[in-house]
Each structure stands twice: as C-alpha cells, then as structure tokens.
Amino acid sequence: MRFSKLYLKTLKESPKEAEVISHQLLLRAGMIKKLASGIYSYLPLGKITLNKIEKIIREELDNAGCQEILMPVLQPAELWKESGRWLKMGEEMMRMQDRHNRDFVLGPTHEEVITDIIRNDIKSYKDLPINLYQIQTKFRDERRPRFGLMRGREFLMKDAYSFHTSEEDLDREYHNMYKAYERIFTRCGLNFRPVEADSGAIGGSHTHEFHVLAESGEDDILYCNKCDYAANSEKAVSNIELTQNDEAEKELTLIDTKNTSSIEDVAKFLNVDITKTVKAMMFKSILETETKYYMALIRGDYEVNEIKLKNAVNSPVELELITDEEFEKLSITKGYCGALKNISEDIYVVADETIKPMKNMVIGANIKDKHYINANINRDLKINKFYDIRMVKSGEPCPHCDGTLEIARGIEVGQVFKLGTGYAEALGAKYLDKNGKLQVMTMGCYGIGVSRTMASAIEQNYDEYGIIWPVSIAPFIVNIIPANMKNQTQVDLAEKLYKNFSETNIDTIIDDRNERLGFKMKDSDLIGLPIKIVVGKKSDEDIVEIKLRKTGETIEISANEVINKVRELIKTL
Which end of the chain has a smaller Cβ tally under 10 Å, C or N? Predict the structure, then answer.
C-alpha cells in the first residue's frame, strides 16, 4: 500500500465530542468517522485492524473446535417472546415493524436464533456437542452512546454458542473457550484479566468477563493481591467479619435532624459512628403494567449494589430509582427513608447482611427532618429478606485466602457464560439420549466485542503523539519513508526496500507523498505504525534508519540487512 493512494484524512485536533483517548485518536488517525450518535464508519486503516483482530479470533476458535456461521441481523419478535426476553431486554433493544405490522428486532445477541436452528436440526446425542460462532454487527439502543467504539448503538461482535448433553460437557467447553479467550487477547497484545461477573440479561449460572486494564474503564474490578480471585464490582464479595453487637436494646426515640438528609450529615449531627446508621434507598421494577417497589437497607458506610439487589428480588428487568411522586404515593419521605414496621405493604424490604448484627441503629423516620435512634430489627423494622447487596471496598479481606482486595479499572472486551438449560427449555431444544429418551440440551455462550477490543488496545497503548499499536493488530507494521521526494537516490532506495518488503509477510506501506519529512513522521506516529524506516541523507551509502514507535529507539543499518533486523525486532515488540 502507498500513502499516496490511501484514503486517509487525519486531524490535528481532537473533536469536541471525543471524551476518551481511543475515541480521540481513532478519529484523529482517520480510522473511523461518525455518522450519528453511537454509529461509526470504519475507514481503511480502521478496517485493516478490525480484520486482523477477526483473523486472530477465527484462528483460535477454529483451533478450539468451533465452526463459523452467519445468522440474520433481523429477527422475528416471536422468538424473543418464546424465550421470555421480549420485555426483559428493555429499551436497549432496537425494535421495528415491517409493512405488515409484524414485530422484529435488530439483533443485540443471537441466543434465540441459534437455538431455533439447533432445535430444528439436532435430534440425537450423537450430534452433540457442537459450538457455532459468528462475527457480525449487533445493535443496542443505548440511552447515552459515548466513548466512541466503547459504547455504541451499532458494534461488531463475535458470539459463539455451544450445545451439550450434560453440565460436565458444558464445563469442559467453558474451560476450552476460557483458554481460547486468553490466547486471543494475549495475541492482540493486551494486558487483561478474567473476572467473575454477573450474567445480566443473558442469564445462566456462571460467567467470567475479560477486562482490559485501563484507567478509562467503565467497570471497577476487585482482585486479590495474593491469589487469583478477581470479580467485577457487581459480583465481588469479601470476607469481612460481622461481630454480633451484645448491647441491650434501648428505647426507640424520634430525633430532630433538620437539614441532614445525607447519612454522613446525620452521623455527624448525632455524633455517632457512621457504622451505627442505616441507609435506605427506594427502587422499582416495571414489567408490562406491573410495578413493584423495593427498599434496600445497608449500613451507612457502604453503598447499595443494584445488580446484587436485582438478583436478591429475582427481578427479570433492571431496577430504577423511584420518582418524587412515588415517594409521596408510598408515604415515604425522600432523604429520610426508613423500614419501620408501619410502612406500606407494597414495599418489599431487602436488608444487607451487614445489618444483621446491629443494635440501636439510626434510621430514617419517614418524616421530613426526622430520624429514629435506637431502632432494632425484630422490634422496630420490617425486613422481608437478608441478602448481600453491598458494594465491596478496596482493602477488604479476600473471600478465598488471607490476601487483601485491591481495585482497578477495566474495559470489558469479552465474556463467557454457562447458560444451562434456560433457553433450550423455553424454545424446545431437545435430543434423544442413548436410551431413546427426550432430554433438554445444555448451552454455553461466548462473546467478544471486536470493535471494542480495537478501542481498548489504544486505551493501553498511546502517548502524546498518538497510537502505539501492538504489532499483531497494527494496520501496517513497517512504514518506509523517503525523507525527500525530490532526491532520486532516496526515492529509488525506498522503492527498492518497499518491493523487497512486499515479497515478505510483513505488512508494509510506503509514504510516497510529496510532503515534508516532519509531516510524514507525525502522521506515522499518530496512526501508530510500529516501525518506521527512514531513507534519508545516507541513502547514497545504502544506510537507512529504523525508528521504533514504542520506545523511540533509532538504529542505523545497511539497507541489505534491514529486513532481517526488522524480523528480529518484531519478535520483541
């Protein structure tokens, strides 16, 4: 490829809407172009990198025994209603109607479609296990698309689905895919970590997310400093010690706490430790025409984990904070909530495990500017269920060893699920076993955000000059740059090197534009090409310069030796 023929429009400044570094640099380097909020075109350099990531994924999945297919983007609503996810997926699902008013969706994922294929084709245990995958555009109507390719409404994804005759066989394939993912992200040059996670709307009994570690990550990861325990903050647990408080119960007393709606203000006003306070938060779930209300109780020094709370109440949809009007309807005072025994029967109360050993607590009185002191569980409070609903903090004890949990930021680029029999049961995916009896298949599901992987690589690999691509996914590995296009000796040697490199398997581009050397160097650094070969003043001696993007190192070398040297350098980058 020649720069003179390449469709490339680089930018000197970052567009105002670009918040994170990958978004800024992908736009500036001319790799993507915005069409609408959360929707991007991939320009030639960006598409080459996407292709390289896809190639790595295909090679590893094919080697792991998977088979590639391609399923429709447009999916009939009947399948989603049959599986029970038509409403569960919520507003993120892109819904539409055809000219006959039939409901369809633009696929956010393909569990329903693949299960429909398998249930119609697979009849015997002899045809199982099987693992099918695709690389395809997905659609999700994000409320707030942001961060470029990190959270878009249209994105490229690899999704795979496996079908089995037993949980044991699913366990084997789960491990197989887990290891394949480790190889994929290692080959992509990423610093990543697998973590335990919540399965969300996909469902299933067990799941791991693969996170690229980066300060710009949207997720908090808790990990042990001694063992290999790691979990998304939505799933993380710790081994904190909850000591039973043996003090005698005191008389419940109403206290004036004017202008102290935050729990920190209340504790300070009453001159009590915040661990003696109880924080109450109000949530709701809306499914079709039914609205359910939940109050979450947690010790004042912790925060409520909404995913854990959703799991505690077995809600099929995401929970939302209630409105001011709903506070009034439920006779609950915003900022002064409390789970007193006389609260509405419509409110289901979930208390965190940290509440169990507490005595003589401070709790909202459901009256403006009022709190109760000396509240106690059995005597004063309504609690329907105890459950771990707290966000784990950095510094807490590991649940698996005597280590301490630390926190890092991560970008989720992949996830593996043990789905179990849920989809197969709902959609009727069954097979005849060895004894001729009809059995329900067991499923696994495995996803990788391909476009997000590209953006994540930049979040880990950049400097003030631009992108620093890992060699394996760089659009071109070598950029040959004649310093002066008016110097025929330089041009001839550069063309000779370009011809020689083109005969190798090293992806090479030549910058044959009639531009200043500084301009070409800046473009090369912005785009992030790993190796520059500058053909300059010593070209009449057959001497060129190798410049490494990652380290800034410069090596003078004979033109005859440059290919072998580049091969050596590639192994170290």
Answer: N
Is the peptide bond preceding residue 530 cis, with omega within 30 degrees of 0?
A: no
Task: Please give the class, per CATH, of domain 21-189+413-459.
Answer: alpha beta
Which of helix, strand or coil describes residue 119? helix
Task: Round to whole Å and give the CA distance between 336 and 364.
Answer: 4
Cβ–Cβ under 8 Å, residues 421 and 441: yes
Residue 199 scores a pLDDT above 70: no
pLDDT score of 90 more than 60:
yes
What DSSP character marks residue 309?
A: H
Angle between helices 21-28 and 450-460 (to 10 degrees): 100
Confidence of residue 202 (pLDDT cuts 50, 70, 90): low
Both tokens of 449, joined, read 């955000």
Alpha-carbon gap, residue 246 to 252, rounded angstroms: 17
Q: Roughly how many angstroms between the first and final C-alpha of the chain, as a whole number?
A: 22
Question: Taking 70 as the threshold, does the pLDDT of residue 1 lie above it?
Answer: yes
User: What is the pLDDT at residue 39?
Assistant: 94
Whole-number Å distance between alpha carbons of 403 and 301: 22
Domain spans in the chain, listed from the N-terminal domain onward: 21-189+413-459, 253-387, 476-572
Q: Six-digit token pair at 459?
A: 């979040």
User: Rounded to 5 degrees, what angle do the CA atoms 174, 178, 184 make?
Assistant: 140
Q: What number does CATH give the domain 476-572?
A: 3.40.50.800
Architecture of domain 253-387: Alpha-Beta Complex (3.90)
- In this model, does residue 215 exceed pLDDT 90? no
Q: Which of 223, 224, 241 is nearest to 232 (CA)?
A: 223
Rounded to two decimals, the pTM is: 0.86
